[in-house]
Amino acid sequence: MKTILTTLNSKYIHTALSIRYLKSYSQDITDIDLMEFTINQNVDFIAGEIYKRNPDIIGFSTYIWNRDKTLKVCETIKLVYPDVKIILGGPEVSFDGQDLMDEHWYIDFIVYGEGEITFKELLESILMVKKDYSYINGLIYRKGDSIIQNPPRKLIKNLDNIPSPYSFIGDEFKNKIVYLESSRGCPFNCQFCLSSTIKGVRYFSLDRVKEDLEKLIDAKVKQVKFVDRTFNANKEYAMEIMNFIMEKDPHNMNFHFEVTAHLLDDDMLKFLKRAKEGLFQFEIGVQSTNVKTLEAIGRKTNLPKLKKVTEEIKSYNNIHQHLDLIAGLPYEDYDSFKDSFNYVYEIKPEKIQLGFLKLLKGSGLRNKRGKYGFKFLDSPPYEVLETNYIKYEEMLKLKGIEDLVEKYYNEGYFEHSIEYIIKNHYKSSFDFYEDYLKYWEMREFNWVSHSRNRLYEILIHFCKHKGFVDFNIIMEVIKYDYIYNNKNPNIPKFFLREEVALIQRNKHNILKDGNILYDLLPHYKDKATKDIINQVHIEKFKIDIIQLIDRAYNVTTDIIQDSYILFEYRDGVINRCSSYDITDYI
Q1: Could you give the CA distance from residue 586 to residue 578 in angstroms, rounded to a whole number?
Q2: Are 418 and 474 in contact, with CB atoms under 8 Å apart?
Q3: Burial class (CB in 10 A: 0-12, 13-18, 19+), 425
Q4: Is the peptide bond before 91 cis (omega within 30 degrees of 0)?
């Protein structure tokens, strides 16, 4: 019998871990083919490509982002190929499987919970034509006109009993995001998360994790994303894995971990300080700074420790930090969320992920939806629209702010511009984004997409619209941000520039100045000027821009003087440019 395991990933660059686990656990009893699609592909195309393989059994890994399209694919295949056995598994079908099968006639089986053993036993029963599924825990199946749900399956105690999902690796992973786990479960009990439904944490052995990592490093994947809910729950275990990665020193790869900041002690911080720039990426869930909210969702967070630790890591300039907030949580109204936003913004992580509460099936908050007045559509992604504490119109405003944060903060292209404007014209970062959103929507900029150059231009128009008295200084700061973050000789004409031709004519001679090389660019001192010239840019500013930044954007009279800045472009993941004041040299 021919078996296919498949799923619809959210993006082409992603790969699926779950179907590889199932294949590795069952490959000794039958050949299993893997097929991966994306949610952007047409239902007819997906169904057609699966049908062409002429499978007897098809297993679909199901999530909130692919459930509806997966069901349409299943129905299409079953209509033209009624004898095929269709199996669904995954978190999106693990909590209401009987209802789902009652509503969708074309589903034959649902594997709920941890699926490796259940799936293997089901395959064995189908292959042996037993048609007795009553002994298979973790399975929902049809028996005549009835739908039977067997008891849940116990968790696998020794995770190493699951063969590696990466036993055989070809070129399919090159330059892709590949998922890996070193543990299952979570020590915390956050009520918005499905991990709260499983008690305790189980670990793969370090040898097993290292073996998988070595294979993925050799395969030159783009990113290894650990799916552990709290990667640093066991400090020594986590450090051993990260140290292994550091010793391997892979090129053009990074490793993403979800960590809990208040568990990072001084010993681990000292260890992280020596990590190569861009090698590690941390996702840190803050969710809220409202104490009552944190209590309601069962989240244990030491906020002062979190802030101290994340600011310390920020100072290392080597690890991307993504801090998460969730709008729509219990007791979090609009003003409370504003406080949470400002708290996180002050830390200045590389990315602020502003998410919106999703009432996942099986989660504690979904079970208490009446208590908090959650209003949501009961279809994926189950996103909350309104609660007893925050109105729909306020959630829409936060959606708009999220979009502006993504455009103007998360990529880092406007770092000094936005910070200068906030420091000199607004009480808080949230106040700026709220005000900018009014202008953005008034001009209907939210109706179309914009190039990066256009985003700079819109910000300039906004500052002019506001009538800021220091507009000329703002223009210089925006120009600095543009040149710093864009290695582009074609600087837009909306920037006012002086001595451009003169500087270009003399750039070669300026770079020949031995003092500049020895004082500022010692790593170039043995190279010919022609090898340096394309890596740098020199620009005149009407203000002492470096001093303004060093003074935390406080404007004083001595700032208003000409300065010449040399920009040295780098290939760093975090540090893409360095700038030097060469006024005295010129």
Answers
A1: 18
A2: no
A3: middle
A4: no
For the chain, give every residue range classified as CATH 3.80.30.20. 159-384
Q: Is 45 left (phi over 0), alpha (psi -120 to 50) or beta?
A: alpha
Predicted structure pTM score:
0.92
Three-class SS state of 273: coil
User: Which of 183, 186, 187 lies closest to 205, judged by CA?
Assistant: 183
**Residue 578 and residue 570 in contact, taking contact as beta carbons nearer than 8 Å:** yes
Could you tell me the two tokens for 135?
Answer: 């002994």
Sign of CA dihedral 372, 373, 379, 382: negative
What's the residue count for the chain?
586
**Multiple choice CATH, 3-149, 3.40.50.280, 3.20.20.150, 3.30.1640.10, 3.30.750.200:** 3.40.50.280
Looking at the domain covering 159-384, what would its CATH class be? alpha beta
DSSP states of 166-207: TSS--GGGBTSEEEE-SEEE-SS--TTSGGGGS-SEEE--HH
Look up residue 345 and give its two tokens.
Answer: 């913004």
* 586 residues of the chain, pLDDT tens digit each: 899 999 999 999 999 999 999 999 999 999 999 999 999 999 999 999 999 999 999 999 999 999 999 999 999 999 999 999 999 999 999 999 999 999 999 999 999 999 999 999 999 999 887 778 999 999 999 999 999 999 999 999 999 999 999 987 878 888 899 999 999 998 888 888 877 677 789 999 999 999 999 999 999 999 999 999 999 999 999 999 999 999 999 999 999 999 999 899 999 999 999 999 999 999 999 999 999 999 999 988 899 999 999 999 999 999 999 999 999 999 999 999 999 999 999 999 999 999 999 999 989 999 999 999 999 999 999 999 999 999 999 999 999 999 999 999 999 999 999 999 999 999 999 999 999 999 999 999 999 999 999 999 999 999 999 999 999 999 999 999 999 999 988 899 999 898 998 888 888 888 888 888 889 989 888 888 888 898 999 999 999 999 999 999 999 999 999 999 999 998 877 888 999 999 998 8
b/e for 534-563, b at 16 or more Cβ within 10 A? ebbbbbbbbbbbbebbeeebeeeeebeeeb
Rounded (to 5) percent helix, strand, coil in the chain: 45, 20, 40
